[in-house]
Amino acid sequence: MRQLLKNYRKAASQAAEAYYTETTEDALSKAVAARYSKSSITYPTEEYFNNQKREILQAKHQEALNKIQAAQSALHIELKSVSDKAERQHLRASSGITIAERYASQNNLDMDSAIKELNQYAETRPGAYGESLPDRYAAIRNRYKETTPEADKRKAWRYEEEEIQALGIKDTLEALKEAKWELQKNPGEYLKAWNTSGAALLRNLEAQEEAQE
């Protein structure tokens, strides 16, 4: 998933970089001159040059938007299969199912019996959770109850985090969150934001991190 996100960022960034490189005053002037050299106009007016610049700028802008949109569409398609699998795994961790599976295996129980036992335990155990599987399950199941102590709610989040780590999906979930945030931007917003100093700093940091990998 992280690689899919990197691929998207690279494609979108290249489209934005090309746009800003090709629409500087110098680049536009050269592009207009190239057009003029191929035209039959003998005495071009200032209006002619301005109109040509405007046309080229609009075309480059639309080209960049199309490329960014294509990159977003590709990411969205690739995101679907990865997202469904990771979110199912996340649900299993956040609902205590992965803990119940281990409890069932350790006690030679089927899942229905294991969940029934764990739910009964959770109902009679409102707090002061330890590290046992029943306590971990109870903490996760009871964390949203108003009567659950804050310290035990924090334990529940830690237990869930450890389940996510064990499933090996932490980085995938983080990348999914980042990808969904990226896809909320329309191409125009992305193109405008790309040229800000903050975005440039972020790209530099990402490039440094990638170089260290």
Task: Assign a percent range to the helix content.
Answer: over 70%
Report the sheet-strand fraction: under 5%
- What assembly state would you assign to the polypeptide chains in this entry? single chain
Terminal CA distance? 16 Å
Topology order in helix (H) and strand (E) letters: HHHHHHHHHH
Stretches where pLDDT is under 50 for at least 5 consecutive residues are none
Average pLDDT, rounded to a whole number, is 89
Structure description:
This protein is mainly α and about 210 residues long. It has 10 helices and no strands. It has helices spanning about 1-20, 25-35, 45-95, 95-105, 110-125, 135-140, 150-165, 170-185, 185-195, 195-210. Helix 3 crosses helix 7 (about 150-165) and helix 4 (about 95-105) packs antiparallel against helix 6 (about 135-140). The radius of gyration is 28 Å and the shape is rod-shaped. The model has no long low-confidence stretch (mean pLDDT about 90).
